[in-house]
Write a structure and sequence with these properties.
By secondary structure, the chain is an all-alpha fold. The chain is built from 13 helices and no strands. The protein has two domains: 105 residues; 116 residues. 36% of the residues are buried.
C-alpha cells in the first residue's frame, strides 16, 4: 500500500465520520474525528514498511501519525526512532499513541521520564508524565514522591495538555500503595482545582479517596 492510498482511506473514513474533507480539519483539532475502530481496520492493511511509515509520519496528519504508532506497537519498534518522534510530536492523541507503543520496551524509562517531564514543549512533557502514569510500581516510591512535588510546583504553570497528563500522573501514583496514596492526597490539597481548556479534569480527590481503593489498601496492611 502506498502513502497516497492510506491517505485516501483516511479521507474516506473522515468524511463518513465528520461529513467534511480531512484537509478542512483545523490544525489545532484536539480530538481525532475518526473512530478508533476504523483506524484499526486501516492499520491492519498497512505493512511494517519503514519507508511507508516514515512518509505517513511526515504528512503531519494526526490520524496518519496515529496509524504509524499503532503499526509500531504490533511489531518490534525502533525505540530510538520513537524517542525522536516524541521530541517532535505536536498532537495529544499522537503523543498518547506513541507512548502506548514505546512504554513496554522502554528499559531506561526513569531517564526518559526525567528528560521529557522537564521539557518546555507541551506534547513532550505530556509524554513524560503519561509514561510516569503508566509505569506504576516500576518507579520507586522515592522517585514517585519527587515527581509528585515537581507536579505541585509546576502544574499550574504548565501548558494545557501537559497539565492534563500531570493530573493523571498524580492519580496514578496515588493508586500504587497506601504510602503513595497519602502523599498524592496531600499533593492534591496543595494543587487545588485543575482547570483544562478542552475538558473537565478528572477529580483526583474523589478518585483517590474512593472506598474500594481505600479498602484495598486496608487489606494490604493486614
Amino acid at each position: 500500500m502506498t502513502p497516497d492510498e492510506v491517505i485516501t482511506l483516511l479521507c474516506q473514513a473522515h468524511e463518513n465520520e465528520a461529513h467534511q474533507p480531512l484537509a478542512h480539519v483545523p490544525p489545532d483539532l484536539i480530538q481525532s474525528r475518526i473512530k478508533l475502530a476504523l483506524l484499526k481496520k486501516i492499520q491492519k492493511k498497512i505493512s511494517n514498511d519503514a519507508a511507508l511509515l516514515e512518509n505517513l509520519w511526515n504528512t503531519n496528519i494526526p490520524e496518519a501519525q496515529i496509524l504509524v504508532a499503532m503499526t509500531s506497537r504490533h511489531t518490534s519498534p525502533d525505540i530510538n526512532l520513537l524517542k525522536h518522534r516524541i521530541e517532535t510530536v505536536q498532537h495529544p492523541h499522537v503523543a498518547d499513541a506513541l507512548i502506548e507503543s514505546i512504554t513496554p520496551d522502554l528499559t531506561d524509562r526513569k531517564q526518559w521520564i526525567d528528560r521529557w517531564t522537564s521539557s518546555p514543549k507541551e506534547m513532550v512533557r505530556r509524554c513524560g508524565y503519561t509514561i510516569l502514569a503508566l509505569s506504576g510500581p516500576a518507579i520507586s516510591e522515592a522517585d514517585c514522591m519527587a515527581y509528585l512535588w515537581n507536579i505541585v510546583r509546576d502544574i499550574h504553570e504548565s501548558p494545557n495538555f501537559a497539565r492534563e497528563a500531570m493530573n493523571k500522573a498524580v492519580i496514578a501514583i496515588g493508586q500504587i500503595s497506601p504510602r503513595l496514596n497519602k502523599e498524592a492526597l496531600f499533593a492534591v490539597t496543595q494543587i487545588g482545582p485543575v482547570v483544562l481548556d478542552h475538558t473537565d479534569a478528572p477529580d483526583a480527590l474523589k478518585i483517590l479517596t474512593d472506598k474500594k481503593l481505600q479498602d484495598k489498601f486496608k487489606k494490604s496492611r493486614l
